[in-house]
Amino acid sequence: MSTEKKYDLEARTLEFAKRVRKFVRNLQMDIPNREDGKQLVRSSASIGANYLEANDGLSKKDFLFRIKLSRKEAKETKYWLNLIETFGNDHQEKERSELLQEANELMLILGAILRNSK
């Protein structure tokens, strides 16, 4: 993997986590949204954090483990996004849809990295 591609995915996962935070900040905060939002923020940040750790891995085994974790966190992020209630707010629904698409794309990219690294 080239340095440029590595950097692009690092930047992309960071931007995704920032977008999730902005999305959560703008939600109506009832008890379920507050709790699900916390989980969503954590899992979205873990995608990039584990990817960064994978790139600094000391071994191929560690690299693969961290990529698997990153992919798992992308899948979990999709779960939390689906639980969030937007109360019919069209703007939030659109943003959620875009975030779900990005989480799915990240999951597919990480899955491809995993398959190509074995």
Question: What does the model show?
Answer:
- The protein has helices spanning about 5-25, 30-55, 60-85, 90-115.
- The two termini are about 15 Å apart.
- The chain is mainly alpha-helical.
- Helix content is about 85%, strand content about 0%.
- It has one domain (about 5-115): de novo design (two linked rop proteins) (Up-down Bundle).
- It contains four helices and no strands.
- Helix 2 runs antiparallel to helix 3 (about 60-85).
Provide the descriptors you would attach to this structure in a database record.
elongated, de novo design (two linked rop proteins), mainly alpha, about 120 residues, 4 helices, about 85% helix
Q: What is the percentage of strand-forming residues?
A: under 5%
Radius of gyration: 15 Å
- Output the number of helix runs: 4
| Main sheet makeup | none
CATH class membership: Mainly Alpha
For the termini, the CA-CA separation is: 14 Å
Q: How many strand units? A: 0
Q: Strand-and-helix sequence, N→C? A: HHHH
Query: By helix and strand content, what is the structural category?
Result: mainly alpha
The chain-level mean pLDDT equals: 94
